Amino acid sequence: MAETTTFSGNRALQIEEPLIFELGSAGRVGVDVADAPPVDEDRLSGLRRKAPIGLPDLSEPQVVRHYTRLSQKNYGIDTGFYPLGSCTMKHNPRLSEKMARLPGLVDLHPFQPQKTVQGALEVIDTLAHWLKGLTGMPAVAMSPAAGAHGEWCGLMAIRAYHDDHGENHRRRVLVPESAHGTNPASAAMCGYSVDPVPATDRGRVDVAALKAKLGPDVACIMVTNPNTCGLFEDEILEIAEATHAAGAFFYCDGANYNAIVGRVKVADLGVDAMHINLHKTFSTPHGGGGPGAGPTVLSEKLAPYAPLPFVVHDGDGLRMVEHPESSGGAKPFGRVKGYHGQFGVFIRALAYILSMGSDGLRQASSDAVLNANYLLARLGGTLTPSFEGPCMHEALFDDRFLKDSGVTTLDFAKALIDEGFHPMTMYFPLVVHGALLMEPTETESKETLDGYVEVVKALAAKAAAGGAADEFKAAPKYTPRRRLDETQAARSPVLRWKPGSNA
Amino acid sequence: MSIYFTKDHEWINVEGNVGTVGITDYAQHALGDVVFVEVPEAGRGLTKGGDAAVVESVKAASEVYSPVSGTVVEGNAALAEQPAMVNEDPEGAAWFFKVELSNPAELDELMDRAAYDAFVAGLE
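Output (structure tokens, whole complex):
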């Protein structure tokens, strides 16, 4: 429970809100409906419900207030600065939201005849055209539903290529230590074994170690660029060349593509496949598990194996190819998703791209990198940057600045909440100790960043002065709930309310 | 009976041809509160340096690598129920698995206690 000194348990207008089941009171209603006429019991063959199912009875204002109060406890990008590194919490333009709500798009049914949805196909096709243009890649699979799904799609295309070329002995995948956890997971899903590649003390892939691990059984490498330390892999061309020389493919994790849009054509880096997190790079409200979209661009070699469905230009308009026999000689490895991909996210991404234009996209990635370097420059003397030199779209620090203070990265993050800031990403990437990863994105103003910097500096000074460990460990003090017991929550999660279990 | 250590912070205690493997006190301390452990099933083949088990804390999920090649004799089922054991007794009751060594010469590439302690001191 929140520790409060009020009689009500509320903290000013932050109301202590019970579960909706705890609010119910038998017989209370929102809408007065006449009793249903009696039903012939025999028609249910003895399956008639014997007891109420336990839904709460509430009045309409109770329901409205309950959900409004819950929504007020939420913190999102529309509430304030959200510097979570590796998540790219950028502003979601209202224009994109408006486009995604156009009745002509929202009210479509995926089973409508194709000739009645030419506009929707054009949305998919135009977005695909932009993604191919920006990356310099010849093909794109639009249907993967999110980043990891795109990884899996790309790897399946690679696997299909190898199986088709009598190289089904290639079943090992090289993944750098700093990779997103989804990389080894996607590889394992495809039946590959995963071989980790160490990093150098510059925070980049150890090219010599990678070369030593390449061999005739390697299917591909998976490299994120910029990587999870927020650094550009500056030996990427050498990596790609060695990979191709070994007969393997180069899968690029495009999670951080937002740092290089309009500046780097990934095709020029020797990439064979890369997913694009539309929801990060081209804006869409995300977090809490979705929605996302992970279209995967493919090289010439892999393009024939792209999954169904895809849009083609026919004599009389656009056509969605749904079956292998009508795919014009392609060898699609299958289908990765029901229907046609995350259409709502496609609309937002296309609206974002068209409203920004190619110059705007280039400026967005440039500003994202500039903002991250501004944080790095202003905080570099107070916190401890993990690696030397400028960063890309996110700035990585470790916990050396907290040494001997008794304060941990976690305590520091919790104290930041009391100051009105969502914390940075903590303890990721794993390759540095007590990581603090900050991604301001291009949409934050200098004033916001300065406000954040002042608070971080003040907290760091307080920790460094000593004697403040207990105060840090008591944070957060001003939230609806104080510090939660994460260990207990993970070891013995209580996921379901049961009647009579009210605390 | 002799105990060896890896640079990835696993220990292996060898008796005859069977080694008992766990993670070191340094490793549990670095991980923080352990909330989930997955140990290998008996009969699974392991290669030196390859994935053998999974340990997850509130901060991170990590692989536990096998210090040697061989076949799993037994996984410590108690850890799944009580992952906290890893924090309480990492180099005792919270062993992860027992492995029958297929190539005992691999032990020569590991560190003894003194060498490991010096290795850890160098990480601080």
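Residues 2-123 of chain B form a domain with the OB fold (Dihydrolipoamide Acetyltransferase, E2P) fold (CATH 2.40.50.100).
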